[in-house]
Amino acid sequence: MKREAVLTTTISENARHAFEEFRRSNARNAALFLKVDPATQVVDVDRPATPCTVEQMRDLLPNTPRFVLYSYEWRHEDGRVQIPLCFIFFTPADANPRSAMVYTAAKTVVCDTFRLGKTYELRDEETLTERWLQQQLSRK
């Protein structure tokens, strides 16, 4: 019986550098897209940090799983402004099951490496609106 090597997810230096630059930039309303190579299970940059609204970010999503780090300028009704770093795990409902599993396995590594808290999971890109993001951020 032939055995297959078990791969573990790693984060490329390019992705680490892009994330640190993104975090230090204090960007407002910008997205950094990350992808996972299913053959090597290496997480790398898919699209460099891009200024965009939530709706523009939605339009940039491919129809395959992706991780998106979004720096969101959240203006509350009382005038307060917060800029949370949102980690969005996008897996389209019709995604290839193997690809979805690769991303699911990589999610913990990405969260641990970049010290991310909450993950906002998304299956339908049409759901991604500013209102949806605010609802996610409002949950405890």
Automatic annotation (TrEMBL):
<dbReference type="InterPro" id="IPR029006">
    <property type="entry name" value="ADF-H/Gelsolin-like_dom_sf"/>
</dbReference>
<feature type="domain" description="ADF-H">
    <location>
        <begin position="5"/>
        <end position="138"/>
    </location>
</feature>
<dbReference type="InterPro" id="IPR011171">
    <property type="entry name" value="GMF"/>
</dbReference>
<dbReference type="Pfam" id="PF00241">
    <property type="entry name" value="Cofilin_ADF"/>
</dbReference>
<comment type="similarity">
    <text>Belongs to the actin-binding proteins ADF family. GMF subfamily.</text>
</comment>
<protein>
    <submittedName>
        <fullName>Glia maturation factor beta</fullName>
    </submittedName>
</protein>
<dbReference type="InterPro" id="IPR002108">
    <property type="entry name" value="ADF-H"/>
</dbReference>
